[in-house]
Fold this protein.
Amino acid sequence: MQKRAECRFRLAVWTALALGAVSAAGQMGGPAGGSASSSAREATGPATVRAAEQTLQTVNTQTGVGSATSVSQQAFKGSLIEGKSTGQLMDLSLDDAIRRGLRTNLGLILQTSAEKEAAGTRLQALQALLPTVTGNASYSVQQVNLAAYGLKFPGVNPIVGPFQVFDFRAYLSQSLINVTSIQRYLASRHNFEAEKLTAEDARNMVVLTVGNAYLLCVADTTRIDAVNAQLATAQVSLKNANAAHEAGTSPKLDVLRAQVDYQNQQQQLIAAQNALAKDKLALARVIGLPLDQEFRLVDLTPYAALDHVDAEQAFQQALTQRKDLQAANERLKAASSQKTAAWAEQLPEAHFTGDFGTLGNTLGSNHGTYTAKAEVTAPILQIAKTRGDILVADAQKEQAKARLSDQVQQVNADVRDAILDIEAAAKLVEAAKSNVDLANEALSEAQERFRAGVSDNLAVSQAQSQASNAEDRYISALYQHNIAKLSLARALGVAESGYKNYLGGK
């Protein structure tokens, strides 16, 4: 009987240790070393770096910058370093982080450069419509052999010269009628406006990217506080189990079980601290902070419910405010102008060229001379080229029109998705908060029963695990709710100007 009891005791100990190891492995093995348990992460969504990046990548794909220069979404996760580390701990608010991001974020810088490139292209196209004036000054010395040209005159030396010529001249060229150049200039102007609007839209992307990184760090910080509280609770349970065992009212199994629970909480704390450190590095990369700069978050963005948002009204608002939609419309206009330019290749063109200057064999004997010429040119036989250019331009116009139509529907989907996420996350927050209260109450009840000697601490261990999972789900639900509100602001095109209102719940 004693051997059987000892075997059962050992089996129970190894079972408890194995369960603790499995639980720790599930918590340590999550994406990017997140501190949340795997079950909680699966139930509540993005609570780790990798999951958050996946969420942001999905948002970027749906609502990202549609620039013709194709600034990659990865660029918005980088920045140009601004300044050096102060060597002191600095406070970083959400407003400060966003302001820094709008100055240093790589995606915005690249898109602004694309806007400058489009401005240069517009000026290049404009030059074809403006007068072009060039100047030239030349001095030449010549000696001509007339015999080489078959000119021979009896008694005349065929060698003429040497003689010199001074020529100072200005040349003017002006396109009088050129429909193709006019339409190409209009297309370049529409493309410039599109890049300008895209750069404005990129600012909303920066706000979303920075906001997501900041909110993730907030969730990590909150999780560390929660794990510290759970660690303190586990330490109290361990002391109670030791005291009961020393008093002879509790078996060694209760002490081992409490020890496993305590060490599990220590592992969760290590994982949570590591996740926060890595997420702070990611935030620093987004806003241009030196990676060795220590900072702490001062905005913890508590839960604030958002009033009901009408999906149709929100969609109509997005249609007027989304800069990427306006940019897509400008690109459609540019494609239309390119098609007209291709068709106009078969029309006559009128040009004027002229020059005026002084010419003579000495500076003192120079005399004014000029040339003026107006010409009209018209293609006679280039049917294949003209037809081909028209087909290419028409295909590009159809593509631009299809992209605009699809982008409008994507904006509609973005708005409705964000509203659904907000409503679902709000319900998750309420349910998770209730579960936290119930789990804490169950833990308190289990601890009282153990201290009273009514039961062993198995119920305490289970209640601690449930309380930890409930707290983790609650933190993840808060993160989901905040990022959903920020995504709605981006979907409406007001992330830069209205992120405070949406995170504040107005």
In short: The chain has one domain: 11-130+178-348+384-504.
